[in-house]
Design a protein that fits this description.
The protein is of the alpha/beta class and 276 residues long. Helices cover 16% and strands 34% of the residues.
């Protein structure tokens, strides 16, 4: 059997815990199968629901000691909707880790801006964890997060923790506030112009809906960021995870194989060509 074919065979993985995040999002904690290496921030795994299909899901947390990795899933498609039926103790199919993640080595000693929209926060959550664990290795951390409504906000139980990380600023906003909302209102990209950060010694990581990432890239460029300091996660149309099926092709590249994290300069020719 070829290496590519072996990579397409799911391994059995145990669901150790399921946590409800919002009305249509849950986090699934999966025990890594034996022999599987721990994923890095920004990578993804293929999760297979038996008899239904599989989907690429980013890693939203990792406990290397227990080898339990978290995947935060929004129920929107035919496969992800079946995740609502998955319970602690169930077994799913698992392939991975795949892809190129966030450039953690490049940001050592640098300031970091994380910009997340909606379900884009989970892929950035391991970056927050890594910075917090090795705080002296990195500069200022700024986290900008936005969703459509208050009810859509993820990981609200961690916001005080984010704020407690030394030399860290955390800002959250919603498009449509509730009557009790007392924080920022509007799209998350509106916050970029107000943060105090030196683009010459900073990196920006962006994840969320494509229109939001497009706007964020434009705001960052106007703020003085260079294209090689802006990274985007493009988890779109991925199917096989190993660059065989062609569903995620973007120019000569495959999002699953050459990404999902890309520097803006690398993909600008194929992404938002009329804008950048």
């Amino acid at each position: 059997m070829s290496k590519h074919m072996a990579n397409l065979i799911p391994l059995k993985a145990l669901i150790t815990h399921v946590k409800t995040e919002t009305r249509n999002v849950k986090t699934y904690y999966v025990k890594l199968p034996n022999g599987v290496e721990p994923p890095k921030p920004g990578q993804f795994n293929m999760l297979y629901v038996h008899g239904v299909g599989e989907v690429p899901i980013s890693v939203s947390d990792l406990d290397e000691k227990s080898r339990v990795v978290a995947h935060t899933v929004r129920f929107v498609g035919s496969v992800t909707k079946t995740f609502e039926l998955i319970r602690e103790g169930d077994v799913i199919g698992f392939r991975g880790p795949y892809g190129i993640g966030w450039p953690m080595d490049a940001i050592v000693g640098k300031d970091i801006v994380l910009i997340a929209g909606g379900i884009g926060l989970p892929p950035l959550r391991p970056v927050i964890r890594e910075v917090a664990r090795n705080r002296s290795a990195y500069g200022k951390l700024i986290i900008l997060y936005g969703t459509r409504t208050v009810e859509d906000l993820l990981f609200t139980y961690e916001y005080d923790y984010y704020k407690s990380i030394p030399n860290t600023e955390f800002y959250v906003t919603v498009d449509k506030p509730s009557e009790s909302w007392r924080s920022n209102v509007g799209v998350v990209t509106n916050l970029i112009k107000h943060v105090n950060i030196d683009p010459s010694k900073s990196y920006a990581f962006v994840c969320g809906p494509e229109m939001m990432m497009k706007s964020a890239a434009q705001e960052l460029l106007e703020k003085g960021f260079k294209m090689n300091k802006i990274y985007l996660s493009l988890e779109r149309r991925m199917k096989c995870g190993v660059g065989l099926c062609g569903h995620c092709q973007m120019g000569p590249y495959f999002v699953c194989k050459h990404g999902p994290v890309f520097p803006l300069w690398f993909i600008s020719k194929y992404f938002w060509v009329d804008q950048i």
